[in-house]
Write a structure and sequence with these properties.
Layout (H helix, E strand, L loop, with lengths): L17 E3 L7 E3 L6 E3 L11 H11 L5 E6 L4 E8 L3 E9 L2 E5 L1 H4 L2 H7 L3 E4 L5 E4 L1
Antiparallel strand pairs: 1-2, 1-7, 2-3, 4-7, 5-6, 8-9
């Protein structure tokens, strides 16, 4: 796993911020310092159905990153240890397509950083026009 050039407040990130949902189970998010998937810390949040709700959840999980957008990941991932509500975890694995939590900084990155983040983001340039940044 390659280190990313983003500082999350407590050290360098080793993974990009992502969230995953599987209805009937607690939401999962990537711990960006360890790269591991972890269940919702409140023990109460489960799947949501709108992009706005996913964005809000990303903002809750990564408050220090100023998340402004979410995009569905390009590939599914297998995540272990999904928990039911109240953190009853039984080691079940599910394959899901997670959501990448994107911040304003993704729109301002240089080519090397953009490559490290491996993301495509819709950004508004300084003239107010929408553009895709690679």
């Amino acid at each position: 796993m390659s280190a990313l050039a983003a500082n999350a407040g407590t050290g360098f990130a080793v993974a990009e911020p992502q969230v995953a949902m599987f209805c009937g189970k607690l939401n999962m998010h990537v711990n960006i310092q360890t790269g591991r998937w972890e269940p919702d810390p409140s023990g109460t949040k489960t799947c949501v159905g709108t992009k706005e709700a996913i964005l809000q959840y990303c903002q809750e999980m990564y408050p220090e990153l100023q998340i402004t957008n979410v995009v569905e990941a390009n590939q599914p991932v297998k995540i272990e240890n999904w928990c039911k509500e109240k953190k009853q975890c039984k080691g079940h694995a599910h394959i899901v397509v997670p959501y990448k939590c994107l911040g304003e900084s993704a729109c301002l990155m240089g080519p090397l950083e953009r490559d490290l983040w491996k993301r495509v983001s819709r950004c508004t340039d300084i003239h107010g026009t929408d553009s895709i940044r690679f």
